[in-house]
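Problem: given the chain below (144 residues), write out its structure.
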Amino acid sequence: MNISLTPEQYKTLLLTTYLGNWMVNSHQVETDKTFDTLASHVYSYAESFGLAGLVELDADNGRYYPTRELEELAAEHMDAYDNETFWAELIERLSERDLVAKYGQDASEKMTVEERFTKLEEFEARYDEEFEKHGVERLTIKDD
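Solution.
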């Protein structure tokens, strides 16, 4: 199978490949070779699309890697993702904690999906409003 891409589409594919590989491998001790190998393969076509500045060949192992330029193109997307994920995860985890604290573990597990969703939504709205207004400014750790 062959896929035809314009240089702009290929640039987007490069960026998407970098972001996907980063998501899978950036926190791993051992790299997932499936993603890493595919990324190198996609990167290998950069020169033919006039985008050689976005990747570089490691002559020692014959693999292609992103350059600082490609990493900088991805940074804006990564920062936006990290920011949104941070707030969403923080709100979700605090809301889950508060749900269990208010209703108990057993009761919260026995709730219907709709009931749990409604009750969580109340906590989430409170945290969303708080963090929208104050960020983490008023977030503290209580001493026992």
